[in-house]
Amino acid sequence: MVPVAYYVVLSAALFTVGLVGILVRRNILVVLMAVELMINAVNLNFIAFSNLHGNYTGIVAVLFVIGVEAAELAIALTVILAYYRHRETLDGDRMDLLKG
Amino acid sequence: MIGAILFFVFAAVALTAAVLVIASRSIVHSALYLVLSFLAVAGLFILQGAEFLGAVQILLYAGSIVVMFVFVVMMVNLKEPISLQWTTFRSMGAYLLGGLMLVELFWIAGRAGGWLSAPSRGLEPGQGHIEVLGKVLFRQYLLPFELLSLVLLTAIFGLLVIGRRK
Questions:
Q1: CATH of A4-99, one of 1.10.287.3510, 3.30.2310.20, 1.10.150.120, 3.40.50.620
Q2: Using a CB-CB distance cutoff of 8 angstroms, which residues of chain B are in contact with residue A35?
């Protein structure tokens, strides 16, 4: 059995990749995918610690995360589609309708 | 031993695919690499005894979520070519922030002491199965579980309102 430190390191690396993706990419769909990567990294940590303590609480937490995250993603994609119908762009830098 | 080998294989696949999600020029390629990353993480879940969660990960993430992404890509018509800007001032700031956070996370993990490198106790066989999880969800966590269904219902109404054509 691999020690939990390995999972923590892998999770930190995945989280950082997601963060860099959010900051570097401008296409809003790729930014959402990077958010997914970060959530996945967090889930990996939950399971690793659940495994460390021999307890199912982490698994239950991940189930809730997945449920909330599915709702969030569906709404986000719908908003993106609605925005695209108005402005014909997916560039996050040009989404400035609220700038005033 | 075999567990360690599998861990490194899955970890390498997950990390490489994650980097490729960020780095590929086409959004469809990004979505496909996202599937690969999710599948590798599902393998890591199963490796740690959370079999039901691994199945949920494959069905929900690699299945439906990526299908949603691909549908949106199909419905929007991207005329402008996607430009990747890896060397701008802003990207440098992003790398700096990412590196800073990585160092920070490692520092915190290093301070946690020796228990992080101790072998895991491991889930009892069957503790990650749906029978145990179902009982837990419907007894101990009944209220959050029902609230979650309310969240999903609200999301459906929100979708219908936002997605409606004028």
A1: 1.10.287.3510
A2: none
Q: Report the distance separating Cα B13 and Cα B40, nearest Å.
A: 6
Mean pLDDT for B128-145 is: 87
pLDDT digits over B18-36, tens only? 999 998 888 889 999 999 9
Note whether B48 contacts A47, CB cutoff 8 Å.
yes
> What is the number of alpha carbons within 13 Å of residue B163 lying toward its C-beta?
14
Domain boundaries, chain B: 2-128, 129-166
CATH fold, domain B2-128, is Four Helix Bundle (Hemerythrin (Met), subunit A) (1.20.120)
Domain positions in chain A are 4-99
Whether residue A77 and residue B68 make contact (CB cut-off 8 A), yes or no, is yes
Residue owning tokens 């749906």: B130
Picking from B18, B48, B72, the nearest residue to A81 by CB comes out as B72
pLDDT of residue B110: 79
Question: What global pTM score does this model have?
Answer: 0.89
Q: Do B60 and B71 form a contact (C-beta atoms < 8 A)?
A: no
Subunit contact A29:B73, Cβ cutoff 8 A: yes
pLDDT of B83 strictly over 80:
no
Here the ipTM equals: 0.90
Give the C-alpha separation, B151 to B155, whole Å.
Answer: 6
